[in-house]
Amino acid sequence: MAHDIRTGASLYSFQDDYFEGKRDLEGCIAAAAELGAEGIETLAEQMMPGFPDLSDEFYATFAGWMEKYGTVSVAHDMFLDTKKYKHRELTHDEMVASLHRDIDHAAKLPARNIRIIVNTPPSVVEAAAPYARDKGVKMGVEIHSPWSFDDDWIKRHLDVSERVGTDVVGCVPDLGIFVRKFPRVIIDRALRDGADPDVVARCVKNYDEQGDTQALFDEVEASGADPLTVNFARMTTHFIDSDPARLTDHVDQIIHIHAKFYEMLDSGEEYSIPYDEIIAALKKGGYRGYLNSEYEGNRHIQDIQAVDAYGQVGLHQQMMKRLIAADDQGE
Amino acid sequence: MTSVTDRLISPGDAVVAAADRTLVPVRVPWYRSLPLSCWESVAVTLDGQRFGVDQLELRLGDATIPCTELAAKHETFWFVQDTGWLVVPATLDATQVELRVEAEIRIPYILIGPDKALVRHVQDGGTLPVVRSGEQ
After folding, report:
1. Chain B closest-CA separation from residue A175 CA (Å)
2. Which of A86, A95, A144, A231 has the most B C-beta neighbours within 10 Å, making it the best mutation to test the interface with B?
3. What percentage of chain A reaches a pLDDT higher than 70?
4. Residue-range domains of chain A with CATH
5. So what's the ipTM on this one?
């Protein structure tokens, strides 16, 4: 089936540069464009001061940046602060109103897609679907580890997509659900912090061999191991290794993809995630949409080195473009 | 270098000593802006003297808010790049101070149980320079 896979970048990748004042919002967009990203994904609560009360002037400026750098505003990542009140959750109506706020923002950027954060109830997405359709905005629940396509919560979201139509509701897989090898940057950080090397090695082997991470965590916790070691064992329960073929199965519901990565190697490969299999699965399904680089190795290396998001996103863009362009046997 | 999500104090910041109070620079220890209502508690220790939430005010932009009232500020966001100032009822004469800031921050979209959000306990500090200002 003919595919049309494009690469973009989530500005989440450049958050360290932003926090440290090395790049402003325009600078992050410019960096993404220089590295080959056509699509731009933004987090209003991270890089748009004043959100949700942004001026028409801001939106005009943002649209001007898209034109200036030859990029397309692909997605707005929404948050649903269900516990902004300490003693109660937002009501259903409050959640729908909050989502309408995000739909309005996406329509003004304009961004075609909204990443729906996974704590959003399916009923809220369903209630907001007519409003989103009127505004020309698609919504997709983020499928983020430890959730997978096969969890009941995600299935309920995908059921909403079936009911209201894939033209307005779908999903945003985060490629962190395909972690084949436990990320080396996380292992190294745990060892630097002082976790027990023998237990860490055992947990990593168990993960990489698709062992029962919960059972090993329970054992490590019961053993009286130190908190750092217990925490590392717990972290292995938060990662999953789904079958990339699930992307082919659900390709019609995918509105865009968070192309999560932890560590690009100099060889041009990602250490943990089988991008070759993932992109082959998307091609097989005829995926038409964006893979947005989302660098998340930063938080694990900040203790020893400056974060090089620019270099990492550059290598990631090159890898994805190479794999998209490659001829796949049997395609 | 500490992760930005663990940092309450930005590198290079200084404590400001005014005539009748001290101002401590603080940032949001997270990767996105959060409503002020998510600050469940905050405390400052200056040279061993601890000041609790009921003794502190937060100066953010043009507003000065008693920290005991932060829980009611559901619609006011603290932007991640903005420095807020904790106003401490103490005076400093020295050129540097041993500072410790502790905070409990509710992450309002990360649920860890029925009607229960993740609360992060964050602390930061060290020896900071003290600068004097009659205007702060």
Report:
1. 20
2. A86
3. 99
4. 4-181+239-325 (3.20.20.150), 184-236 (no CATH)
5. 0.90
